[in-house]
Amino acid sequence: xxxxxxxxxxxxEILSGHTVDTNSVWISQQLNKLGIEVVTRMAVGxxxxxxxxxxxxxxxNASILILTGGLGPTADDITKKVLADYFNxxxxxxxxxxxxxxxxxxxRNLPMLExxxxxxxxxxxxxxxxxxxxxxxxxWFSYDQKILVSLPGVPHEMKYLMxxxxxxxxxxxxxxHHIIFRSVVTAGQGESFVAERIADIEDSLxxxxxxxxxxHYRVLTLRLTGFGKDKEQLIxxxxxxxxxxxxxLADIVIAEEEIPLAELVGNYLQIAEMKLGLAESxxxxxxxxxxxxxQGSSVNFKGSAVCYQTSIKHDVLGISQEILxxxxxxxxxxxxxxxxxxxxxxxxxxxxxxxxYIDQVPSESAVPPGTVWIAIAHGNEVIxxxxxxxxxxxxxxxxxxxxALIFLLKKLRNS
Amino acid sequence: xxxxxxxxxxxxEILSGHTVDTNSVWISQQLNKLGIEVVTRMAVGxxxxxxxxxxxxxxxNASILILTGGLGPTADDITKKVLADYFNxxxxxxxxxxxxxxxxxxxRNLPMLExxxxxxxxxxxxxxxxxxxxxxxxxWFSYDQKILVSLPGVPHEMKYLMxxxxxxxxxxxxxxHHIIFRSVVTAGQGESFVAERIADIEDSLxxxxxxxxxxHYRVLTLRLTGFGKDKEQLIxxxxxxxxxxxxxLADIVIAEEEIPLAELVGNYLQIAEMKLGLAESxxxxxxxxxxxxxQGSSVNFKGSAVCYQTSIKHDVLGISQEILxxxxxxxxxxxxxxxxxxxxxxxxxxxxxxxxYIDQVPSESAVPPGTVWIAIAHGNEVIxxxxxxxxxxxxxxxxxxxxALIFLLKKLRNS
Lengths: 415, 415
Fold this sequence. Notes:
The structure is a homodimer of 415-residue chains. In chain A, the strands form four sheets. The first copy, chain A, has a six-stranded mixed beta sheet with strand order 2-1-3-8-7-6, with helices on both faces. Chain A has a five-stranded mixed beta sheet with strand order 14-13-15-16-17. Chain A is α/β, with parallel strands linked by helices and 415 residues long. Chain A has three domains: 3-173, 3-Layer(aba) Sandwich (Molybdenum Cofactor Biosythetic Enzyme, Chain A), CATH 3.40.980; 178-255, Alpha-Beta Plaits (2-Layer Sandwich), CATH 3.30.70.2860; 261-414, CinA-like (Maf protein, Alpha-Beta Complex), CATH 3.90.950. The model of chain A has no long low-confidence stretch (mean pLDDT 92). Chain A has helices spanning 12-15, 22-33, 48-61, 79-86, 95-107, 114-117, 155-173, 191-197, 199-203, 231-248, 261-272, 286-292, 310-315, 321-326, 332-345, 393-414, and strands spanning 3-10, 36-44, 64-68, 91-93, 121-123, 127-129, 138-143, 146-151, 178-187, 209-216, 219-228, 253-255, 276-280, 301-307, 350-356, 371-378, 381-388. Chains A and B meet through helix 1, helix 2, strand 2, helix 3 and helix 8 of A and helix 1, helix 2, strand 2, helix 3 and helix 8 of B.
């Protein structure tokens, strides 16, 4: 039997769409790693009745409830009062938490306010999860075979408490429940066709291994999820099906693990002891950002020249004025020049250039909107690829950057 | 009385945390604009019982239910079958949808599969929402004073159907229900202190205008939400409180609307007819990416030199080797040189340079980890700011970019 969890995000800003609830995503990932299945996620406003109702729904569906948000010092934060009320508990001042908050204010040389003192109050039936990263303590309630945990909504505080207190405490209560994920990542073929190619493998899956398809722009991921008690056996079986899928789809597989494309590119560069330089026009620094989000990327990533105006392609990259004058700035030859200049300027083994019209095309150009040229220079060779994108601006930037990384990844896998 | 809506995202990939549910965020924003309050958001897996249960919870709490996901051509997509079953309806082939799907496959010169034909089947009690952007039709169910809408999970298809079909149809059923949002955006003071400074204004708010605080790194946003029938009167009242808050907090206000910082910077640059060039080290192109996500940014943004390795600061920006040899690469003087070089290289009125140790510090440096120097060059003046960050890598990059934009925004507001 699976252990089931429910996640409840509290806050008007989440419901109104002013804030994206990334906390629940992260918590889901962490619980999955412990073999706990998240069966429902909910978001409600800072409203006592709505919070109570959501807790009841969570209790009906799961044995572990994780709440985030509503623990701040301002009047709209009511989670703690609702919980005290729900459990018929008294709010009492927690001395250690109070001392910690006083310490924070002393250190910052700020006066302590009544509302800050109140942050040290907790329902008398909870175990305090001491929050080194902020002023709001986490709270752990055990009752009727259920666990309810209330955490602050500030992401780095929530993550700290989950990692150092909640997950270890949950782990103590678990025996043998495991979830295993294994993936095959593909690019270049649509969902229906891939499904058709692997239909017999999908049909042969045992009931405790599920297959799901997820599409992110041009990348289609096939994810196997196995549930079971014998971890080693489960890994073996899930990997058996992973290998079968990867073999069948060998022509479109780009990875057998779900890590960011930029990290895959970085790994291949590192193995080959090669370095990358970029010249970005239409992606405006986004590829550089994706590359540098990866820890340790300075080893293989040298930099990017973000040339958002045509004159800069001459001034910074040194592309000849003649080429720029005689060609559309969105053309194969300009992309090639950018790639070559990127390799040269950054003294890199691979240079990648990308130029395109992401939304609007200037009146003097005959190039269709959404046209993007990507070029990769390596040694004396330059390869190119053309895209024609038709989404909104932000999506087009995302797809163009993704296509560039896929193009580079395929080149690196074949080198 | 408010009209209430519930949003239900369907898909194992959402529950497992492999996909971030941005659809629900966007739908919330759109419904809010129509004056509809989203009272609950839920996410469940591709599981018939869980979907039915979530629909029932939605019906108990709201009169409008929006479902996304589970309409694809693969075996894990079951939403349509669950809905047919829920409404005791038959699945019937919809001729227009079938012709549309056939057209897509013909155009791409691909054979049509049985699973694609099945995408044209819909429950016989629904109104089909024709999906020009893809193969899965949307479905609209009216029953017992309730509206249930089922949409594909692919974001651009969902958005197309919402904008062109769902929202106009909902609007027809509405009379006078309005929600008005007004905001005051601040930087430089903590939540508790701001709350204390405006306590009397907060206490004087009428019950139909709520105040919420949201923190994103160093930016604290105060958002007023007014509910009412008389739109003009409601705007007037909400703006009265907005002005009172802005006047009280004048020293820390950076904006009176919630638009991205990069867009605010762009607007100030455009008014002043000035241009910006960047030299980014530790932010790795992220500031350039934020600037270029804004439509029309090529007017005032010239580019960025992402110099991820020290040697590139000399090779690309032309900073003298002597300065680089005699100073830590994370120092005030190198930041100043980067800002000046960015203004010069990109022929820009404002040059911004940023250099820092985002996570690891090389052994030869005595600078504490998390140290970041920001410099802005304008004319003959260069101003600088130092940060000391202590979060994880990705957060540190985000905070550093945000602080740089705030620093630039304050400079532009005062120029």
